[in-house]
Design a protein that fits this description.
Radius of gyration: 37 Å
Distance between the termini: 109 Å
Shape: globular
Order of helices and strands: HHHEHHEEHHEHHHEEHH
Strand content: 5-15%
Helix content: 40-55%
Strand order of the largest sheet: 1-3-2
Number of strands: 6
């Protein structure tokens, strides 16, 4: 009969196999494989005092024309008939902050009765055109030129506009009495609301425009809404005193 050889490895053969595998693993670790450093590893190396250092790039700030391209932007603001004469009288005060502070190009088109604003290569601020539009619109709504100029100098000023009919549908004498309660005798109620809430209010027929910060506009609007709904001025004064005392405690 033919003899079959025993193919099962001996103990010695197992050791040689394990040694051969170890040698293969060691050769794999010694090969020149690229090492990828994670950001945390780089920071650890820098902290450990090694020579590896990474410097942050320093980029110059972008200008408005670099951010939005070389194309010029233009806006037109229509002039209502009741504000055309004041605009002509105060035109020198209107275009001065637009040209000097915002570096915009401005002109008044007498044919189409509108004010045209345009950016130029001197315009460096990104939101310059929008600030100029808000400034002109504030003047068109009836705000004083000094109050409207504050929109250019400060970033957190807004204009809130609403009508009396948005609060309550009043007609005839009821509407006139509501306007009278908001204004007060010789404008005392309106001045009190402005001074307490640190806002500026314009009463244009049935429309009301409030200029100020978001929080101060809310205070003034709540007081005006209470007057429209029929609250007596004395009660509104008491609420404004309470709110003003709370505001002083915060600051």
């Amino acid at each position: 009969m033919s003899k079959f050889k025993n193919t099962t490895p001996t103990k010695r053969s197992k050791q040689t196999i394990s040694e051969s595998t170890m040698s293969i693993d060691e050769e794999a670790t010694t090969t020149n494989t690229p090492i990828v450093y994670v950001e945390e590893d780089v920071q650890m190396l820098v902290n450990e005092g090694n020579t590896l250092k990474m410097e942050k790039p320093n980029f110059a700030p972008l200008r408005a024309r670099d951010l939005k391209g070389t194309k010029r932007q233009m806006q037109k603001i229509s002039v209502p008939p009741n504000r055309y004469t004041p605009l002509k009288k105060l035109w020198s005060k209107v275009y001065e902050p637009l040209v000097e502070h915002l570096n915009l190009q401005v002109r008044m088109n007498t044919k189409s009765h509108c004010v045209e604003l345009r950016t130029s290569h001197h315009t460096n601020e990104t939101g310059a055109l929008q600030k100029g539009v808000d400034f002109v619109k504030a003047f068109m709504l009836g705000f004083d030129i000094d109050d409207a100029t504050a929109i250019i100098r400060l970033d957190d000023l807004y204009i809130d506009s609403f009508e009396i009919k948005d609060v309550k549908n009043l007609q005839g004498d009821h509407l006139s009495r509501a306007i009278g309660r908001i204004a007060g005798k010789d404008g005392k109620v309106k001045f009190t609301i402005e001074n307490t809430s640190k806002t500026r209010i314009v009463l244009a027929d049935t429309k009301i425009h409030i200029l100020g910060t978001f929080q101060n506009i809310k205070i003034a609007r709540d007081a005006i809404v209470s007057l429209i709904l029929g609250s007596p001025p004395g009660k509104v004064y008491a609420n404004l005193r309470t709110i003003s005392s709370r505001m002083k405690e915060r600051f």
